Amino acid sequence: MTLKAAAFLALLSFSTLDLSTARRTFHEVAGCYPDLLEVGAEELVAGLESGAWTSVELTKAYILRIVETNSVLRAVTEINPDALSIAAALDAERANGTIRSALHGIPMLIKNNIATNDQMNNTAGSYSLLGAKVPRDATVASKLRRAGVVLLGKSNLSQWANFRSSNSSNGWSAHGGQVTGAYYPNMDPSGSSSGSGVGSSIGLAFAALGTETDGSIVSPSSANNLVGIKPTVGLTSRSLVIPISEHQDTVGPMARSVSDAAYVLSIIAGKDENDNYTRAQPWDAPPDYTQALNFSSLRGARIGIPRNGFTQGPTDQPIFDAFDAAIQILKNAGATIVDNANFSAWDEVVTDDDAIRGNGTTVLEADFISNLASYLSQLTSNPNNIRSLSDKSNFTHHTAPEEYPNRNTAVWDQSLSLGYNNSDSRFWEAYQYSFSFGGEGGVLGALKAHNLDALVLPTDYSPGVPARAGLPIITVPMGFYPSNTTVMESRRGLVTVGPNIPFGLSFLGAQWPEETLIGFAYAFEQRTHSRRKVKPFLKPSTQLADVIST
Ligand SMILES: *[C@@H]1O[C@H](CO)[C@@H](O)[C@H](O)[C@H]1NC(C)=O
Ligand SMILES: *[C@@H]1O[C@H](CO)[C@@H](O)[C@H](O)[C@H]1NC(C)=O
Ligand SMILES: *[C@@H]1O[C@H](CO)[C@@H](O)[C@H](O)[C@H]1NC(C)=O
Ligand SMILES: *[C@@H]1O[C@H](CO)[C@@H](O)[C@H](O)[C@H]1NC(C)=O
Ligand SMILES: *[C@@H]1O[C@H](CO)[C@@H](O)[C@H](O)[C@H]1NC(C)=O
Ligand SMILES: *[C@@H]1O[C@H](CO)[C@@H](O)[C@H](O)[C@H]1NC(C)=O
Ligand SMILES: *[C@@H]1O[C@H](CO)[C@@H](O)[C@H](O)[C@H]1NC(C)=O
Ligand SMILES: *[C@@H]1O[C@H](CO)[C@@H](O)[C@H](O)[C@H]1NC(C)=O
Ligand SMILES: *[C@@H]1O[C@H](CO)[C@@H](O)[C@H](O)[C@H]1NC(C)=O
Ligand SMILES: *[C@@H]1O[C@H](CO)[C@@H](O)[C@H](O)[C@H]1NC(C)=O
Ligand SMILES: CC(=O)N[C@H]1CO[C@H](CO)[C@@H](O)[C@@H]1O
């Protein structure tokens, strides 16, 4: 069944709960509902509280917005067939005085590598896992569900979180097609959380979850005009998330404002007995990140620029102009800027990245072999009997929709040739080097040497160094390419650089400083409102007014 048919069937077969008689007077009289392209958590919740709309109506509106755009943008792979009945149950709870969290009744998308124990599939975009079942929800999905968030659907991604091929494209998966961005026709959506980026950017849901190993939250957040938080590895559980690397993977929010992202992070953060890395959290329960939304938080802050960590590329002038302006805004907001807070191991990072199999690559390959097998071993149903990387490689080579060899499996071929996994001493040697390049030789060293609270750099250049040491990043919209920009295409004809395409500013920190980084990002966002300055070329037209029955 196509997405469209499934969605309409879900809408038709669902009989609306009539909660209201004297509700929504304000909105009827004023005729004004918030634009779902921009609306944030607080306004959505206020409407649910006042009875101006219900969670069912909101869910319907988002389903119709997905249906309107999906044939072009392909941001969503599956709509949850239970979304409307879940929303109805949450409406009934609210009517009865039960409010589970600040996001009770609010629909979100989750990336198609985060498993749910319901009718939705978790495939990382591959047919090999279609129909596979998990014993329970991924911990982050379970936390959202228990908080009363409607799990609206699964967002498309670069297949296997971009750990498969050397010549595929950002946002392509066999089970989902090619995602494109909404700010320019045939736009490269970046990746690997491509559908989460596009879906959140044009309001196909309140917000989305993404995952990052090296750039996969912050890069698509930057390109799609969003705030993205890549938490410290261990702040959010990875249990039942299809892995690349236990040392680098992390789950985080992709949202239209710092405030919305902070609401989501507050729900998904926390310890989990099914992910030992979460035991390193320095508290019993994580903070309420919405308390960090302080307009003045840049006052007295010390912020460094690791100038050697990026070189301006030929099409980067607009990014660097915006970066210079951003630095001035940070200064005006009371921050002390320390320029040339350089990464001491930058030369080693470059050498390591350029090597066919440097220390960083070894870490990912060895972790992947072990961590993938561990995920697969937890499946309670596994129709294609995929138990290992070799099984999945073989499946991919023999299944036409996986588009092999047109899209190769170079990453797996090299991983399979490594000859060991992350229980080997050679892994540990590579990991110590790679960690030190990102830690003492990277972010941690630069922070310490200059007594800094954070580093800033353009998001296009931010993910690689912190990735090696599991360190956090928050990206916030900073600007977009001007109308006279010459269009540049990447692999397979997607437009990477072109008029109207957004880009972000990244704040980097040590382990567990998400409150501080959220404060800085908020103070910057509230002074710039860069997101509002550029609009998508393609946006859904369905609004709440279209689904509210009067
Ligand atoms: C309403 O709340 C009461 C008391 O908390 C509870 O017993 C009842 O099951 C609730 N009903 C629904 C439909 O949630
Ligand atoms: C999950 O995959 C199965 C097997 O292909 C399919 O029958 C089912 O409809 C899918 N679920 C959703 C929500 O699309
Ligand atoms: C967590 O660590 C303990 C001690 O090393 C180990 O026994 C357990 O299996 C680990 N749990 C998970 C879920 O990895
Ligand atoms: C906001 O941040 C400023 C600067 O750090 C601080 O002085 C102030 O107390 C903070 N406000 C709140 C409400 O925490
Ligand atoms: C930092 O890096 C920049 C760019 O490579 C370089 O120009 C500058 O001299 C470096 N500063 C220090 C203190 O190392
Ligand atoms: C790891 O880094 C060290 C130090 O730079 C280097 O000597 C070694 O060759 C690297 N190992 C690999 C596998 O690239
Ligand atoms: C990892 O390597 C060890 C030692 O060779 C081996 O016993 C184990 O089965 C391997 N695990 C996986 C998932 O390949
Ligand atoms: C590889 O896949 C093919 C087709 O799916 C299957 O017939 C064959 O048994 C598989 N080979 C191995 C070694 O798993
Ligand atoms: C991708 O690489 C494979 C070889 O690894 C090649 O056969 C295939 O033609 C390439 N695809 C494209 C579109 O270049
Ligand atoms: C675009 O216009 C700006 C301002 O007029 C100019 O500085 C810049 O060089 C132009 N860029 C291109 C690629 O033509
Ligand atoms: C569930 C669903 O409709 N998925 C669609 C995602 O996009 C691909 C490519 O366009 C379609 O083939 C799938 O049917």
Keywords:
alpha/beta, two-stranded antiparallel sheet, globular, binds 2-acetamido-2-deoxy-beta-D-glucopyranose
Compact summary:
This protein is α/β, with parallel strands linked by helices.
Bound molecules: 2-acetamido-2-deoxy-beta-D-glucopyranose
Mind telling me the C-alpha Rg?
22 Å
Number of strands: 15
Helix content: 25-40%
Mean pLDDT: 95
CATH superfamily, by name, is: Amidase signature (AS) domain
Biggest sheet features: 11 strands, mixed
Low-confidence stretches: 15-22
CATH class: Alpha Beta
CATH arch. level architecture: Alpha-Beta Complex
Task: Label the overall shape.
Answer: globular
Distance between the termini: 32 Å
Counting helices, strands and paired strands, the structural category is alpha/beta
Strand content is 5-15%
Count of discrete alpha- or pi-helical segments spanning 4 or more residues: 20
Organism: Hyaloscypha bicolor E
Domain Amidase: 57-467
Keywords: Signal, Transferase
GO molecular function: transferase activity
